[in-house]
Amino acid sequence: VPLPPPFQVPLPIPPVLKPVSTSGGVDRYEMTQREATAEILPGVRTPLWTYEGTFPGPTIESRRRRPVTVTHRNELPVPTVVHLHGGRTRADSDGYPTDLVLPEGWPGTAVGAAPGMRNGHGGHDMSGHGRHDMSGTHGMHDPRAVETTLTRDYTFPLDQRPALLWYHDHRMDFTAPAIWRGLAGLHIVRDDAEESLCLPAGRRELPLMIADRAFSADGSLAYPALDPTLRKQPGVQEPYLAGVLGDVILVNGAPWPVHEVDAARYRLRVLNASNARHYELEAVTDDGRRLDLVQVGADQGLLAAPVTHRFLPIAPAERHDVVVDFSSVPIGGRVMVVNRLGSGRTRDVMAFRVARKAKDGSRVARVLSTDLPTWRRSDAVRVREFSFRAGRMRGGHGWLIGGKPFDPARTDVTVRLGDIEVWRLIADVHHPVHLHLVGFRVLSRSGRRPLPHDAGLKDTVSLRPGEAVEIITRFDAYRGRYLFHCHNAEHEDMGMMANLEVT
Ligand code: C2O
Ligand code: CU
Ligand code: CU
């Protein structure tokens, strides 16, 4: 496929979804998951799986503590699961990987299937593990064994710090190909305290969902399907074992886009929605100057105080809230966002063209928030240790937590509601580890101080090769069954996920 030259396509901003009703103190939304096509690369149409026909899906804008209900209808050819990443959500709305929304006419819908009907958990067929393909129809042979509905209401209390959350597919064994095909969108939570800080807002606050993709000659998304004949040849690695990378960098669904800005401060709400690619972002001007990246927030909202970076690492599923000041760039000048870890075309991410002088009433306060939890190691009632390593599972390669691949029928960890715990996470290679339900703080990296971008409240932490990272959290939200997993989406599908029961 012909790739567009960098920094030519305008940056799209995902549409904001309108609620169908706001009565009774609840914002109600409806979303249909359906197939659609988009002209991502010039002259070709790319078939996608979408929320509401767009990639990224529409953005939901919420106020803190104002509950939201989203009714999802599945018109895709496969079952789906919706998870609000970073949400403090009750277990029945958290998108457990076997809590399916079935498409109409899916085999078994007649058995389990009046809308809203619950069939209970357990007995899930694990044979789909490691057998990826784009149709995603393996591995779900007995829908009676899992919880299924044709539509599903997801309720989000949003009793949490204002933050950039994101929703995405979470179906067991097929999360990676589903996200790859387009099932991801943003959900922003706001409150008055944050707004009173006068950070750049309105046109000067930009959501940036970065995701790499690969394309076939006809414009369709290329995702490596495992050729069963490869499996029999000794020494041949499954092609996606390390995770799937693309050679086209999309921001908000557009390849290497450009955005016109005022010579003023902008608030960039960056999400790495890539399946497996890590980035180290820097902002470089035409004349080779590096602009400061002033981080004001992390996965779970505002930092205590801003942290200035020259470059900013971001692992899959992490979010950074960053203020960049374009006022020192001459009018007509350009600022490129590049990935120091990329090469050739994967080095470029996007660009800003500084179009005009403008007034700027925004500021970055020296104190951004005072409500961050201050858990100390001595507050923890226990320390647990988990290894994140490659291993053999069911005769093939997989990714394991504590030596085990994911099993929905096994409880891996039971924690008591309200307990503070330290978790020591040990990695062989890069693993971005994500906890559902609760935010955590990074205590240490291999016995040393956390990195500058570990500040604040996180829900995903990037374990680097060979590292042991300690995190601390309080399991204070809800009781029920949740997950923790690697957010390299292929690792997650290949077993690197575990059950966390809050009792
Ligand atoms: Cu972003 Cu369990 O997921
Ligand atoms: Cu999550
Ligand atoms: Cu991993």
From TrEMBL:
PROSITE patterns found in the cross-reference section = MULTICOPPER_OXIDASE2 (PS00080), TAT (PS51318)
Q: What class of enzyme is it?
A: oxidoreductase
> At the top level of its lineage, which domain of life is listed?
Bacteria
The Plastocyanin-like domain is annotated at: 35-97, 394-502
Q: Which Pfam families match?
A: Cu-oxidase_2, Cu-oxidase_3
Q: Print the keywords alphabetically.
A: Membrane, Metal-binding, Oxidoreductase, Transmembrane, Transmembrane helix
Cited Gene3D superfamilies: Cupredoxins - blue copper proteins
Give the family this protein belongs to, as stated in its UniProt record: Belongs to the multicopper oxidase family.
The name under which this protein is listed is Multicopper oxidase CueO
Tell me which species this is from.
Actinomadura rudentiformis
